[in-house]
Amino acid sequence: MRKLAIILGFCLLGSMLTSCALPIVVSNYVDSMGNEEDRKKIEYTDEAKKSGFTLEKPATGAVAGKDEFLIQGSLAESKAGDVLSVWVSKDGLSGKKPVTIMDKKFQDTIPLYYGKGQHQVEIMIEKNGVHVTVAKFTVDKTSDVEQTPVKYSGSYQTNGITLHQPLTGGKSYDGKVLLQGTVVPPSKDEKPLKYMIVHAEKGEDTSRYYLPVENQKFSQWIPLRFGAGDYKVSIWLDEMTDYLTPVADFNVKNTVTADLRDLLPGSGMESDNPELIALSKKITANASSPMEKARAIYKHVATNVSYDLKKKDNYWDDGALKTLRERKGICHDYALTTVALLRASEIPARYISGDAGEPHAWVEAKIGGKWIPMDPTWGSGYSTGKKFVKAYDPSYFNPNPASFKKTHKKPEVEY
What we know:
single chain, 415 residues, alpha+beta, Immunoglobulin-like, C8orf32 fold, 3 domains, 6-stranded mixed beta sheet, disordered N terminus, Transglutaminase-like, Transglutaminase superfamily protein, Papain-like_cys_pep_sf, signal
């Protein structure tokens, strides 16, 4: 049986600083791992017995895994919203994976981060605000793949979020990364999440996406639109305040060389949707040049969408498909729809967030190597009091630059 003095003595060694920095309450261990045979056992603490913690998988220590392994078990002394903290360590490096407990049971996939060899696994529960170890064992990783831990925040746990894909950072992707998981509120009284927000950053370039949550699940490909290199992908909660609450973040590498920021689909700009591609082809069927195609798309949006004077500022689920279906929207919707149709026609286009006497959105398309502006909202008609009057105006397609700049102030491009 291990002695407390020996455990505390290890903390004085420089090679053990990472492990000893973890918030652990030391307990006497039931089993010992002093030799190879004992290493194959799962080492449970006294606290495991007190709290009713059991592991069904793995059934023994020293199991083997390629890049990950499965844990499954139960915690009798648990309530809604409780989370296990599973720490995976090797050669002084550590990463944590939160595991949600539902109805006193848990099951999750745990990554092995640090290359081939023996990884130490430590499972902890939180008790009275303190993290307490309940079990330890080892897993032998059989692959040489190096991975990095996802960084999770407290809101990940309190909102019942589980990220199934990706399990780790540090991987390479061909232009897009899949975010997939579940959101199960710990309490039935809690309002379910409708969406989360994703940022994909490369240097000073940032793209923003809405991640819908439907039937307690989310699944969406996030484009890496700024060309090859390293990206930070972060997930946030929109608390409808002046700031976002972090959920999780991880790093990835994009292997696609081309910078496709103005051609890839985005939130509300579903340019890869078959319905939108078919519509863009129909709209531009008689156009013989990119300029004529862009003009035809501008006219279609301006004449087929009416301004919604009653719409409120809650537009996380807006998009081109929704706008075309409902045939109404605000400047945000006009711009999303125009950009989507232009990109579906392989014309580079971007959403401009600016000011035209009040916050406003319009579009720029790249034609003949130049960015030309268009404002399909102003080209759609005008308002008289509480009524919108449809009146197509072609002058807001590729307008005189000097005149347009007097009314439209462009502070930023949004991706």
